[in-house]
Amino acid sequence: MTTEEKIRQLREELNHHNYLYYVLDKPEISDYDFDMKLKELQELEEQYPEYEDPNSPTRRVGGAVTKSFETVVHQYRMYSLSNSYSQEELEDWEKRVKKLVDGKLQYVCELKYDGASISLTYENGKLKRAVTRGDGFQGDDVTNNIKTIRSIPLKLKGDYPEKFDIRGEIILPYEGFAKMNAERVEAGEEPYANPRNTASGSLKLQDSAEVARRPLDCLLYSIVTEKIPAKTHFETLEKARSWGFKVPAEAELKDNIGEVLDYINYWDIHRHDLPYETDGVVVKVNDLHQQDELGYTAKSPRWAIAYKFKAEQEATKLKKITYQVGRTGAITPVANLEPVQLAGTIVKRASLHNADQIAKLDIREGDTVFVEKGGEIIPKIVGVDFTKRDPDTPETKYAENCPECGTELIRKEGEAQHYCPNYNGCPPQIIGRIQHYISRKAMDIEGLGGETVALLVNANLIENYADLYTLKKEDILPLERMAEKSAENLINGIEKSKEIPFERTLFALGIRYVGETVAKKLAKHYKSIDALMAASEEDLLAIDEIGESIARSVREFFSSEENREIIRRLKDYGVQLEIDAELLANHTDKLAGNTFVISGVFEKVSRNELKKMIEENGGKVSGSISGKTDYLVAGENMGPSKLAKAEKLGTNIISEDEFLKMLS
Ligand code: AMP
Ligand code: ZN
């Protein structure tokens, strides 16, 4: 077998196993075997870049960064759907349809998946482009991000048309959403509000590798092309399924509105058993010819209508309002409810958001309130049943003091949230900050968990994260459930955190509004904590994407004498508070403004090293040669097509040695 054949075979196998796993949910090989095959393909592609393919399964891991998304005009407009909420409205729709077409009518009922709509263009069986709905006429090209979604076929099988668009919904199943949020909470970040917004936000992320890490899925529901190879909508769904698309099996054919209503009533209850969110049923005229006759209004097809499920709502009694203190001191009011069954779970608590929300709804203890569960994981209170209120019920007076430490709460101008300002003395803030410091995306201290942090604080062994570095095995052994071995692991884990690079240490400090990305930006700009501490608010504001609240929060953090003392101590213990000097020494901007393509095999340095060197010296690496390529670094066994293209475009072709000379 030639290398080319081997590569092709691996791609086919991997595509097939992807399909079995992500579309059919019936894997035939272990994850390990899959990873091995993927690795083998990756290595071959690295070694033989002349066989590169933008639709290779290796592209699923992402990596391409899109700075700004290109606007693309939809060849076929993406319409909305008209909505209905009752049996009468559905029957009215049927009457209108019957006036406009002759013959027997059949309907396809599908679930209305709640996510972000997408239009995929395929040419010759290959995914060409993916575009968001936008305003229906034009959307954003998000192809790089979409390619990371494993259930979307990059290559089709069967008797697909040469060119067509297929529409679907990008969704985030509950389970993956919950997992993502658990990780965010662990890292001290705000959890995402609901799966729909998170799915839709994911499409517009600049870094496709980040998209690849999100467990997104895509459910397809409509083919649009000049010549559809079918007579009915239901057949097109079956066709799409046969070409490798994920088309949910819940779609059903119905002969009349009565049957449609049965379908709706069934799914109104059973939708809670589905792994993803739905917000209604879409009813479509099955016959494509009849669809044509019916056509479109200014906004939506006449041949389809959505039936929206009512948001699940229950009335229950609000027993008490309590207040929670977060690690930044932010106060969240919580409604403690008489337990009530809602959307398949028992609800006992709901968030009340902030003081304004309570005032707006005039919520009082003892009220009967309406609780709703939309896409949000945490149910919310949407209103009060005033007819049930005892006239003597006093108005809610928002907490004035911190429930944990008694300090008077403050509320800054223009902010919705109240805060406990007792930064260094309020237990949940102290514990929360240290928990954030040790979390996975921050210092990633192995052997130390959130509960142990609470134990350590409560035993007065630590008061802040700098104290972690003074801990001795003897101190912690007496703690509950602390064995010799785990004590040792804990001390080792703390010791190892001294190797964590500056940008992550900066994130770990838990400065309000300084998340991972901002921390990276600040570390790169200032290079050391000393420089950052010396920066004025104006200095900070001059940096791209650093706004007023971040700048103010950074200034505030470093103007506290207590924080400065903690930083001094961290420095003494050897925690990384500046960018590694060695790393810095290798960085120049010698190659700034130049784009390189690397091809072939090299003698002195590996392809990865080459890539790193280019990037560290300000250059850009691209996968394929175009008019924008400045240099082609050519190694042994370079692909003939690449060479020809470079020659044709007049690209500078340089050897490994010539490249190294550019840097010396
Ligand atoms: P709306 O956004 O309320 O106008 O509803 C129209 C949207 O519903 C479409 O743009 C699709 O993204 C979405 N949708 C979800 N499931 C389906 C489905 N089975 N058929 C058609 N559209 C659907
Ligand atoms: Zn407090």
Proportion of residues in β-strands: 15-25%
Which residues sit in consecutive blocks of at least 5 with pLDDT less than 50? Answer: none
Shape: flat
Number of strands: 20
Can you give the mean pLDDT?
Answer: 90
For the sheet with most strands, the description reads:
5 strands, mixed
Radius of gyration: 29 Å
Quaternary organisation = single chain
Strand order of the largest sheet: 2-11-10-3-9
Q: Which structural class best describes the helix and strand composition?
A: alpha+beta
- Report helical residue fraction: 25-40%
Instruction: Figure out the total of helices.
Output: 25
Distance between the termini: 42 Å
Distinct bound molecules: adenosine monophosphate, zinc ion
TL;DR of this structure?
With 664 residues, the chain is of the alpha+beta class. The protein contains 25 helices and 20 strands. The site of zinc ion has 8 residues, from loops.
